[in-house]
Amino acid sequence: MTPTEKNTVFIKQQAAALGFDHCGIARATQLDEDARRLEQWLHKGMHGSMHYMENHFDKRIDPRKLVDNAQSVITLLLNYYPEQQQPADAPRIAKYAYGQDYHEVIRAKLNTLLQRIQETIGEVNGRGFVDSAPVLERSWAQRSGLGWIGKNGNLIHKQAGSFFFIATLITDLALEYDSAAGDYCGSCTRCLDACPTGALVEPGVVDGSRCISYYTIELKELLIPDEMQGRFDNWMFGCDTCQDVCPWNRFSKPNSNVEFTPVPAVLNFRTRDWEALTEESFRELFRHSPLKRSKFKGIQRNLKFIG
């Protein structure tokens, strides 16, 4: 086994030891095709008020501008599918937000992985990213063989579905590279047909400015457009509709991460409980939860809109 092969095996073993469910590796290069798609998406205004999507375009399409002399993009998947579900009559919350904020959980794992690489392999320069920097995570996941980007815009793993967080570690270490994954959506259009707001404008293209997740999380205005009234299907924070109807998610299995154990309020609160919640209680209950991203006022706005 060559040193490069040994290093690759070591990294994948350490990723598994840290609790990541899947690990794939791709050569660091410029994503020309993705650049064209992203440019068109932005030009059509599908990012809505998420103006940060316009920033650092060159870094989004080329990891070598994020890490000097980058050689490899390591992509890691972490399952968040919950064992328990909300009551049917409760304001709905996207499954990724049931437990602790994934940024906190995954960032610690990435830091540990990089530290172990440096301790064992030697001087390696790298940076870890988890949904907080200009990285096209899904594209790198597909290139590293971890799945394909489905018609709903989500990464789909053939054996495990799509309820995964995606993390990226870019390094200047040359490694063995995995083959890109094929597309297995076929003629299925369940996600396109099920989207409550018509945000899936064509296979693989999500109009972010029409997505329920955008309105309930990203939109900072106090009012949601009247044209969306009655179309949120009781989603208060995020939306899982396009994943819930995906046939590949029949393979989803509950995660084993204690950090993603649902916050009791997520499983127990009904509409009246959310409405009675004070801002102080909200901050205390959800201080480590993704729900804090919408803030108390955002949650109250969303409740009134779906009520």
From TrEMBL:
Its EC number is 1.17.99.6. Belongs to the QueG family. It comes from Chitinophaga agrisoli. It catalyses: epoxyqueuosine(34) in tRNA + AH2 = queuosine(34) in tRNA + A + H2O. Catalyzes the conversion of epoxyqueuosine (oQ) to queuosine (Q), which is a hypermodified base found in the wobble positions of tRNA(Asp), tRNA(Asn), tRNA(His) and tRNA(Tyr). Keywords: 4Fe-4S, Cobalamin, Cobalt, Cytoplasm, Iron, Iron-sulfur, Metal-binding, Oxidoreductase, Queuosine biosynthesis, tRNA processing. GO terms for cellular component: cytoplasm. [4Fe-4S] cluster 2 binds at C195, C211, C239, C242. This is Epoxyqueuosine reductase. Monomer. Residues 173-205 form the 4Fe-4S ferredoxin-type domain. TRNA binds at K220, K297. It is found in: Cytoplasm. SUPFAM superfamilies: alpha-helical ferredoxin (SSF46548).
